[in-house]
Design goal:
The protein is mainly alpha-helical. It has one domain: Serine Threonine Protein Phosphatase 5, Tetratricopeptide repeat (Alpha Horseshoe), CATH 1.25.40.90. About 55% of the residues lie in helices and about 0% in strands. The longest helix has 17 residues, at about 20-35. The chain is globular and about 35 Å long. The protein starts with a helix and ends in a 26-residue tail after the last helix. It comes from Chiloscyllium punctatum. One of its GO terms (biological process) is signal transduction. One of its GO terms (molecular function) is ubiquitin binding. One of its GO terms (cellular component) is endosome.
Length: about 130
């Protein structure tokens, strides 16, 4: 899992190729749905979510709206609907902080990743 997360960080961080970022975000979503707690714990760390994903939201990257919505949807769904063995406090704190700053998160219909499936304690989609 560490190598996979490292590769995803590299693909997303500072990448101005929006198609690569878009595909990397889809891959993160697929992995979160299908991988276990070891992968989840690496992705939901503040270092990954704040230092990689939220940087793409900054104006300097000029990310298209669908990419911004995808990132916001991932953060929102991880913070509000994940039920499993992984500590989500970093993502939950970031989500609350972003909402407090006035960021508007997409509704479930606007999120480009479709509906989030909660993960059970066994790490499998429910």
């Amino acid at each position: 899992p560490k190598e996979a997360v490292r590769a995803l960080k590299k693909r997303i961080s500072g990448n101005l190729n929006h198609q690569e970022v878009r595909l990397s975000l889809k891959l993160i979503d697929i992995c979160i749905r299908n991988c276990g707690p070891r992968f989840h714990s690496l992705v939901v760390r503040r270092e990954f979510v704040k230092d990689v994903l939220t940087k793409v939201l900054k104006p300097k990257y000029n990310a298209p709206v669908d990419i911004q919505n995808h990132i916001l949807h991932l953060i929102q769904s991880w913070a509000t609907t994940y039920h499993g063995p992984v500590n989500m406090s970093d993502v939950q704190e970031l989500y609350v902080e972003m909402k407090r700053k006035g960021l508007i998160f997409p509704t479930q219909d606007e999120g480009s990743t479709g509906s989030w499936k909660s993960v059970s304690d066994k790490g499998t989609p429910s």
